[in-house]
Design goal:
single chain, 147 residues, alpha+beta, 4-stranded antiparallel β-sheet, 5 helices, 51% helix, 22% strand, globular
Length: 147
């Protein structure tokens, strides 16, 4: 069920992002961006420990999303599933990086950031928030409305 959900979620989220990016940029801008971009998207799925989803969302809302931007990680969107059982413990988000090398550098800088370390430590006083984190790097197809 998790693998099927992940594929469906990925397709739906990318469709929504592509539609939004294409409408905002316009056809000429999108075509130009597609021919020159090395941007890579990252789909991340967090499975929260029991009872920790609200705390995980608070950490993203109050700290993580801002720190991503500080380190060059572009926040695209955050979602929670509508239906049980995943609605109780799953956070899904997409971020973008200028390139695969930029992604590596950004993640390294983020993980070493004292503000991140402080926020993580404070949020996990009563135990780890995430039981599992899955990450998939995505390249837009040549027919995708954005890159």
């Amino acid at each position: 069920m998790s693998r099927t959900f992940g594929r469906i979620a990925c397709a739906a989220l990318l469709l929504a992002i592509g539609y939004t990016a294409g409408r905002a940029a316009g056809p000429a801008t999108v075509a130009h961006a597609q021919s020159q971009s090395t941007r890579v998207f990252e789909l991340r799925t967090y499975t929260a420990n029991e009872g920790k989803l609200d705390a995980l969302q608070s950490r993203f809302r109050d700290h993580t999303a801002k720190l991503f931007e500080k380190h060059g990680i572009k926040n695209i969107g955050y979602w929670t599933p509508r239906d049980a059982p995943l609605a109780q413990n799953t956070l899904i988000y997409i971020v973008a990086h200028e390139s695969p090398d930029a992604a590596k550098a950004s993640w390294a800088a983020f993980r070493a950031d004292p503000d991140w370390l402080k926020a993580r430590t404070a949020s996990e006083v009563d135990g780890k928030l995430a039981a599992k984190v899955e990450s998939i790097y995505l390249n837009p197809t040549d027919f995708s409305p954005m890159k």
